[in-house]
């Protein structure tokens, strides 16, 4: 039987960081398992090509349950199924979140999860000047400003400032309020080396691949975690048409994401006992919080045709600009994020360079949904119900965000670019609500299905050190442990969680 000290399941933003950090100890063997293939598809490297990856072979192809508050629509939920995970197919927007986001986590995780603990981790993971390090030095993700923005993005920033939003040159330094160009996780231009995506698979995992103690197993599906007498001892893996058990002497770290991690736990008999028994899964540990607390950023695309077209640079991440707006009195951070792209619809690349979209999104939704098993078959997708807009406050914020986006789109110089009818026929409250219900989509940031919490918290899945409750030898490090949403894109926070987990494991195992 094959044995490793550590098994990491899922080579996404967190998994690649954790595997690289754990394997830096030459005395520990590490296995990183990924359900998808290696990240050698050339479209992954090209910043402009990410919409081509959605819905294809590198996407899990999840869909939500019908959403009652979105007129019964089922939404596509793209998640990366490739080395690099969703960080291989995202738009590379680099937002750290507000300090208040992490201070809020202290309610669930105590002093281990405050802004003072989390913000320094970003300096270890991200760098605005350096490229990836060598095999035996810490790697960091380069963060690049956009020196050649698309003319439509420039027009959006100018129009939003004319509307009344303050300029913001960097959403990650001080306040998030205002409008400006996004910074992205990509390399800079060098002679003979054009700008490319820089995710944790590229900057952290790739330099570590030469280590003799690190094994990466792509195209391998983990069917379940083996739990014996309350301890996780290994994983059952299907690879190359055969199934086998691989054991872990020290720990197993699940980094499979907000959908796949709770799905895998439940398939392993760890979750709500009645629900597991109802689909024929033997119960190993009753853990009622698995699959609960599901929430996501919901955004609305307001798409416009333009009188002229402009080519989009291959270095563009498409989501080139954006902004943050506070609406509610007493909000600790902005309530709406605006995203801008020189294309029609933020979730695809239609009319690339011949239209534009402004997309308001709610930053910290109150609505909470659930993920449950449909069947005990590991190949079947779980039931995903984010329960969008089940809290009326979320609708209020999105309606106001749409109203603001419409006003900005009508402000020059952006207004001078548009032709044809506006996306919303009228601005009455009823029409704006209906537009939200008809057009809202995921911003690709689901979190929370295995959230962290204290010992007395019955719905906590992991403790503040990310150990699964009731199971020794098993931790989780991905977006599923996030108890409450980040104000902005979640990729940076997820990578930091991966680093945090690796440090906890090294401390606990010497």
Automatic annotation (TrEMBL):
<dbReference type="InterPro" id="IPR036188">
    <property type="entry name" value="FAD/NAD-bd_sf"/>
</dbReference>
<dbReference type="Pfam" id="PF05199">
    <property type="entry name" value="GMC_oxred_C"/>
</dbReference>
<dbReference type="Pfam" id="PF00732">
    <property type="entry name" value="GMC_oxred_N"/>
</dbReference>
<dbReference type="InterPro" id="IPR000172">
    <property type="entry name" value="GMC_OxRdtase_N"/>
</dbReference>
<feature type="binding site">
    <location>
        <begin position="90"/>
        <end position="93"/>
    </location>
    <ligand>
        <name>FAD</name>
    </ligand>
</feature>
<keyword id="KW-0274">FAD</keyword>
<feature type="binding site">
    <location>
        <position position="222"/>
    </location>
    <ligand>
        <name>FAD</name>
    </ligand>
</feature>
<keyword id="KW-0285">Flavoprotein</keyword>
<feature type="binding site">
    <location>
        <position position="82"/>
    </location>
    <ligand>
        <name>FAD</name>
    </ligand>
</feature>
<feature type="domain" description="Glucose-methanol-choline oxidoreductase N-terminal">
    <location>
        <begin position="257"/>
        <end position="271"/>
    </location>
</feature>
<dbReference type="InterPro" id="IPR007867">
    <property type="entry name" value="GMC_OxRtase_C"/>
</dbReference>
<dbReference type="InterPro" id="IPR012132">
    <property type="entry name" value="GMC_OxRdtase"/>
</dbReference>
<dbReference type="GO" id="GO:0016614">
    <property type="term" value="F:oxidoreductase activity, acting on CH-OH group of donors"/>
</dbReference>
<protein>
    <submittedName>
        <fullName>GMC family oxidoreductase N-terminal domain-containing protein</fullName>
    </submittedName>
</protein>
<dbReference type="GO" id="GO:0050660">
    <property type="term" value="F:flavin adenine dinucleotide binding"/>
</dbReference>
<comment type="similarity">
    <text>Belongs to the GMC oxidoreductase family.</text>
</comment>
């Amino acid at each position: 039987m094959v044995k490793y000290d550590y098994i990491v399941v899922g080579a996404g933003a967190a998994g690649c960081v954790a595997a690289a950090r754990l394997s830096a100890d030459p005395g520990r063997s590490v296995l990183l398992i990924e359900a998808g293939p290696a990240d050698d598809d050339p479209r992954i490297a090209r910043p402009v090509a990410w919409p081509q990856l959605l819905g294809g072979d590198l996407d899990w192809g999840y869909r939500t349950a019908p959403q009652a508050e979105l007129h019964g629509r089922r939404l596509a939920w793209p998640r990366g199924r490739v080395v690099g995970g969703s960080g291989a197919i995202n738009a590379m927007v680099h937002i750290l979140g507000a300090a208040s986001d992490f201070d809020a986590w202290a309610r669930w995780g105590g002093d281990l999860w405050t802004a003072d603990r989390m913000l320094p981790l970003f300096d270890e993971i991200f760098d605005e000047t350096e490229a990836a390090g060598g095999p035996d030095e810490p790697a960091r993700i380069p963060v690049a400003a956009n020196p050649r923005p698309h003319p439509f993005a420039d027009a959006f920033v100018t129009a939003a400032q004319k509307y009344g939003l303050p300029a913001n040159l960097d959403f990650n330094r001080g306040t998030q309020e205002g409008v400006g160009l996004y910074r992205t996780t990509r390399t800079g231009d060098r002679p003979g080396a054009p700008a490319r995506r820089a995710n944790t698979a590229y900057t952290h995992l790739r330099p570590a691949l030469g280590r003799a103690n690190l094994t990466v197993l792509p195209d391998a599906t983990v069917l379940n975690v083996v739990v014996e007498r309350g301890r996780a001892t290994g994983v059952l893996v299907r690879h190359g048409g055969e199934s086998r058990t691989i054991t872990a002497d020290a720990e197993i770290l699940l980094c499979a994401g907000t959908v796949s991690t709770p799905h895998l736990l439940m398939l392993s008999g760890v979750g709500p006992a009645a629900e597991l028994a109802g689909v024929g899964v033997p119960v190993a540990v009753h853990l009622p919080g698995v699959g609960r607390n599901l929430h996501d950023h919901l955004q609305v695309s307001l798409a416009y045709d333009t009188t002229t077209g402009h080519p989009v640079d291959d270095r563009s991440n498409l989501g080139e600009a954006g902004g943050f707006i506070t609406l509610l009195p007493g909000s600790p951070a902005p309530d709406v994020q605006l995203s801008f792209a020189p294309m029609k619809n933020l979730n695809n690349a239609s009319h690339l360079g011949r239209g534009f979209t402004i997309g308001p999104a709610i930053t910290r939704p109150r609505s909470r949904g659930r993920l449950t098993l449909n069947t005990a078959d590991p190949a079947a997708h779980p039931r995903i119900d984010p329960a969008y807009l089940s809290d009326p406050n979320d609708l209020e914020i999105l309606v106001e965000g749409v109203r603001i986006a419409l006003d900005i789109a009508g402000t020059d110089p952006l207004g001078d670019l548009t032709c044809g009818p506006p996306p919303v026929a009228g601005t009455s409250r009823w029409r704006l609500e209906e537009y939200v219900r008809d057009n809202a989509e995921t911003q690709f940031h689901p979190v929370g299905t295995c959230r962290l919490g204290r010992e007395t918290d019955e719905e906590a899945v992991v403790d503040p050190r990310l150990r699964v409750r009731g199971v020794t030898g098993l931790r989780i490090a991905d977006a599923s442990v996030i108890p409450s949403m980040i104000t902005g894109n979640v990729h940076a926070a997820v990578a930091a969680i991966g680093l945090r987990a690796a440090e906890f494991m090294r401390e606990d195992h010497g």
